[in-house]
Amino acid sequence: MAMESGSWKESYKGMSADNIKGLVLALSSSVFIGASFIVKKKGLKKAGASGIRAGSGGYTYLYEPLWWVGMITMIVGEIANFAAYAFAPAILVTPLGALSIIISAALAHIILREKLHIFGILGCVLCVVGSTTIVLHAPQEREIESVKEVWDLATEPAFLFYAALVIAAVFILIFHFIPDYGQTHIMVSIGVCSLVGSLSVMSVKALGIALKLTLSGTNQLIYPQTWVFAFVVITCVLTQMNYLNKGNGFKIRSAHFVE
Q: Of the candidates 49, 106, 122, 41, which has an alpha carbon nearest to the alpha carbon of residue 74?
């Protein structure tokens, strides 16, 4: 037991200053993003009561101020998440995003009066245990001196193969399944968001490193790779926003039918 305790302390003390900064930014990001889902859903409900719901292809929520409050809250959270990737390794930052699920679940139970069942509570506990384990054992990140180094990693055959599979799966979901099942199966929209999100991690990390190096005096904006990563990030974010709203619209419509 003494040896295990010593190992735990060494692992904790070994966390670098940059990792701690990334940890704080990732935690604050989860708070903002988790809260934004609730505010946006209330905005979608309000907009859906007077127009075509997002789940049915409507965009009346764009005229709803409450939805924009949620959107701004999410943007603040995403900026904090983006900054976290510049300081800490992706293996530390990405799992902490699961904490936004816990915040959303808790706020949905309190504000939206959505009942959290025993399996939901169990899932939240597992998220906390998993995130804590990863934080305590996060590896030190190697020094990267140029965005070109990240580009070399992103263009390795294994990652390119994975990216091709993900893109193919996303296109199949969008053009084959969503027209037929998008209105009745929420997992289709969630699948698109999750798959696209898995691709955005590499680009967000690269863009964060590029901006960090640029601000420290090593200009990375002169490299075309930086702008390619920026384009991928923007594309992924817009795609996720669109299908996330459709997923929320489906949930609202289902609740309306039940009522």
A: 41
